[in-house]
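User: Sequence in, structure out. Go.
Assistant: Echoing your sequence, followed by the structure tokens.
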Amino acid sequence: MNAGVERADLWRRAWHAFVARPGRSLPAVVAAAVALAALLLLLGLGTALAPLLGRLPVAEATAFVGAGTSASDLDKLAASVAALDGVRHVRVLDRQTALEQLQQRLPQASAMNPNPLPHAVIAHFRLATPPAAVESTAAAMRQLPGVESVALDLTWYRQYLASGALFLAAAGTLLGALVVLALLVLLWAAAALTSIDARELALLDMLGASPSFVGGPHVLAGCLGMLAAACLSIGLYGLARWGWQLLLAAGEDLSPLLSLPWPELPALVTYLLVAVTLGAVVAAARVGQLRRRLRDITANPA
């Protein structure tokens, strides 16, 4: 038998193994596709929501500076504040700009003349900086030259961190459970896609067939099944992405930020290869396990 005929026979036997039990293989493909689509959706949502981390509230400390401070001294003070621990960035609010902003919010403030407001250097801290670190940095700000006082309110911030910790714990538990469930479904589906007849394996072993001849069709059938599931999952993800975009259509400000990304071609190819590899590994493991059982039964008959 030449190589071409062997390959054709391998594909024929693999296809037969794949379609031998449609009542088992079809649900397995659908279940694997749903599990893979769920993992894709979780990954897409994580990628879409990542930019929103920059919009989450952070602690702030405001240093008030005397009205007679020059612009160059304000810049030096801002640089000193930016160098303190936990500070992500600094914003300088001069007294004239502060008065203009106040007048926009409170029209009656237009009568304030002369301007009684001081300059302000506002320190924005990194995300989830511990309150103790914020207080320590605020104390260091009070010691800087030119600073008259520092305003700091951590009551809301402590409540925000506590609520955020509870939310992260609940979300992490839920996401972890979903990922584990999806992986278990994938393993079950990959195993279900490998339709193995124990009698056929026993007969081929007795005839001295090579391991590749015995297991090759089943491994290839597992690959075909997981490839079909992966392709179907991409379609399901595309459908979910379309529905998600429809839901966001009303919120024009959030739509660009929450748009689910579409994987690039290299990522899709890698995804398909991983799915096919999973099918091959699980199928090979099942064939090897069944062959070992048959040999044990033959070596130790009851």
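User: And one key feature?
Assistant: The mean pLDDT is 80.
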